[in-house]
Amino acid sequence: MLSVDLLGWVLASVPIVLLIVLMVGLGWTAQQAGTTGIFIAAAVAAFSFETPARTLAVASAKGIWDAIPILYVIWPALLLYQIMNQSGGYDALRHGISRMSRNELFIIVALGWVFTSFLQGIDGFGTPIAVVAPLLVAFGMKPVYAVAIPIIAHIWAKFYGTLGVGWLATLQVVDLDAATVFSTGVQAALLIVIQAVLGGFAVVWLYGRWPAVRAGWPLVMIIAAIQGFGQVATVWIDPVLAAFLPATVALLALYPLSRWSRYSRPVEGITERPAMREDAHLDDRGAEPPMGTLTALAPYGLLTVLATGTSLIEPLRQFLDGPAVGWAFPAVATGLGVTTAATEQYSALRFLSHPGATILLTALIVWMIFAGKGYFAQWAQRTGKAQPGVVWGLIASAVPASVPILAFLTMASIMKHSGQNTMLALGIAEVAPAYVFAFLANGIGVLGAFITSSSTSSQVLFSELQVTLARAKGLPEATILAAQSAGGAIGNAIAPANVVMGASTTGINGQEGAILRKTIPWTILAFVVTGIATVVLVLVTQ
Amino acid sequence: MIKRILQNRLSYLSVSFLLFLAALPLISIGTTNDWRLVSTAGMVALSIAAVIPPLQRLLFPPKPN
Lengths: 542, 65
Hints:
Distance between the termini of chain A: 29 Å
Low-confidence stretches of chain A: none
Order of helices and strands of chain B: HHH
Strand content of chain B: under 5%
Strand order of the largest sheet of chain A: 1-4
Number of strands of chain B: 0
Number of helices of chain A: 22
Largest interface: A-B, 31 and 29 residues
Oligomer: heterodimer
Mean pLDDT of chain A: 88
Distance between the termini of chain B: 28 Å
Number of domains of chain B: 1
Radius of gyration of chain B: 14 Å
Shape of chain B: elongated
Low-confidence stretches of chain B: none
Keywords (chain B): Membrane, Transmembrane, Transmembrane helix
Radius of gyration of chain A: 23 Å
Shape of chain A: globular
Mean pLDDT of chain B: 92
Strand content of chain A: under 5%
Number of strands of chain A: 4
Transmembrane segments (chain B): 12-31, 37-55
Order of helices and strands of chain A: HHHHHHHHHHHHHEEEEHHHHHHHHH
């Protein structure tokens, strides 16, 4: 067991602080900052946490493998992006959406928040960001905002999303009685209501500041109520469906809401639209796309059908869950007694049931059909621009996106195997009195998600520790674990892998710092409000 | 040649990407079977993969806007 000391704690925080300073403060690209982070984390591990070279090697290789499931989404998502982009599909969508509603604010909310959340309900690993960010750009949004908006908007669906993967992972690593498990589920859903409300208001505020908030607040409150309280209600029935069901209801609710005169007519009184390009306008036609709106929407319909089918049809899911690949690793330890057991198949990748497989299949089918109909050649002719080709476009966008993700996950794995993550969490607990710790508990979840770029990994990393600390401090285990779960979701708003994925699908590789500058304030606000709500829950349940 | 690779963003990132991927099986096989040479080769690949992006920044710093 690690013993906590101030120097060790400060050193353990150096890789994270440096990552933020390099990217946000100094404007380094994610590739440069992430790979530098590997060396810093390794140096701290070797010199302060007595981590031998063999442990560092195993940790690094596991980190590379941890990145593969994310890359398995990024590459197919970018393939779909290239196909849509080079065939005029995004322009066809933009034309069609402009006809559906004359209200730009409504469309931003529908695409950036509701559709993103729906995708998170069934898929994960950044899929909603990779799919929606380029759609928003096609609609006339500036790329930095087009990435920040879906990142913030899908946070509420992280913990129970991907058909409850975060919840199921949490149950795997903690040993609690049934009543505490149920209480954790309900309290986590209650804390996540904050994310739905703050997420919705952030979307409209980013779009058009306070005038947009004044125009959009009824829409935000209705959708946040469906998502947030729908999630609380569904937890009582089946936590696995707690994000998927309300996200679907919210998607369906868009139709009656679009008939409401407040949101069917062009929005008035919003003069400042910082998220939109100067030239973006609903009436902007541009070159006539070679396909209709329905054809352009078809890939997303197909993706939804495939993702839902492969997740909800049990025999099919079981079949696809069968084949798995993973690498073997030996047991390793550090001089400070942090041990990691040997494994025959580390973090097995079920490559047929993984969301990447659904996106890849969708992309290949769409590519075949669009090529057969000659859309690529027609679009190049109509715009007068030579297209780079789908494969070349894919390589040019996916390679720069892949390097930082490999780097971040390698760094995270080194920190985990050397005990730096545990030191950070223990240090917070050591100095914080009980109620202060309750306030900070979700921050540990945020930290885990930031380091690993995954709310599920944050749960695996810190859930057991949070329960232990809650017991030691005499706090209700369910509330602290719920706070961890909420924090694990919030941290995704600044998760480097999400930011890199969004940047790569919108063609702004290297501007990750600018995206983080939009999402960090929201993350801090969500952390503080969740912390206060956690203290209230402790007072109520204790 | 190294200078030419470092001056082309896609080239140096592709080299880094491929070296990251190559390191994984080398380290897994090397450490699991206690084959020092193989795991060392994996660590060398990983180190080069990780040093390329910051090295590129140091050698060819971005021009101020």
